[in-house]
Specification:
alpha+beta; Alpha-Beta Plaits; 9 strands; 25% strand
């Protein structure tokens, strides 16, 4: 008989102050603080599993993790639903201002935040005028690149699946294959935003892609040159990774509909 209930937890965070999502030995991470908050509420050690990992300084507008918590005695109420720690309200009270819990959702025992995800979407934000409210939230550049050239190259990427050229080395993954279904630059009121969606991403992949597309936008390379980079499977042939401050995980999709959240 299963004595635990599995939950999905939906959160958002500003990653400026953290060394990414994943627990680090000598640095503060989002996962570390979430684990501590859950352990405090449930009065026992709780370990979360994230839908992926974000690097130091990267933000998440939507992020999912799962964890298991003991079922209450028959007729009892889970500590997550009881007073004073009712639903997400108690967790938010224990977490700093730059981490926000959106939902805590009971799910079936085999649900997995990482392996069940079918698509993830990122945005990379760039602005061109000095703006104190965008500092740390967007990458400031002086000159506007050519969006048409960058979008030509972005479209080429969707013809490939092996993106070894955009991955950090020695990441211990089984494959560097990813299926990109959207890669597009869009002009906004404050600047430009790169939108990219794929079934999975490699470490540092989006920032390396943006850096490569910027060389094309500055007309330092022809749009078709991206084919040579991808087919080389060599990270040294791609562009420099752009700063983390402009990168956001914005959406994670699952093949099933998540259930009813706990009360606020």
């Amino acid at each position: 008989m299963n004595t635990n209930q599995r939950y999905f937890i939906e959160l958002a965070y500003n990653g400026t102050a953290y060394h990414g999502w994943q627990v680090q030995q000598n640095a503060v991470s989002v996962q570390e603080l979430l684990n501590k908050a859950l352990s405090t509420i449930l009065r026992q050690p709780i370990e979360t599993t994230g839908c992926g990992r974000t690097d130091t300084g990267v933000h998440a507008k939507e992020f999912f993790a799962h964890f298991d918590a003991p079922l209450p005695p028959e007729g009892g109420v889970s500590a997550l639903e009881g007073i004073p720690f009712r639903g997400r309200g108690g967790l938010n009270a224990l977490l700093p201002y730059d981490i926000a819990i959106k939902n805590v959702i009971p799910v079936h025992a085999d649900a997995h935040a990482r392996f069940d995800a079918t698509a993830r979407s990122y945005q990379y934000h760039i602005h061109f005028n000095k703006d104190p409210f965008l500092h740390g939230a967007s990458w400031q550049l002086r000159d506007m690149p050519d969006l048409d050239l960058m979008n030509q190259s972005a479209a080429v990427m969707m013809e490939y699946i092996d993106f070894s050229c955009f991955s950090k080395s020695n990441t211990q993954v089984k494959t560097n294959n990813c299926k990109i279904t959207r890669a597009e630059w869009v002009k906004t009121e404050n600047g430009i935003v790169f939108h990219i969606t794929a079934d999975r991403f490699l470490r540092n992949m989006v920032r390396a892609i943006v850096g490569t597309l910027m060389t094309i936008g500055r007309e330092e390379m022809k749009p078709e040159g991206i084919r040579n980079i991808i087919e080389s499977k060599n990270r040294s042939n791609a562009g420099t990774s752009v700063p983390a401050c402009g990168l956001y995980l914005t959406e994670v999709k699952y093949p099933y509909q998540l259930g009813t959240p706990l009360a606020p």
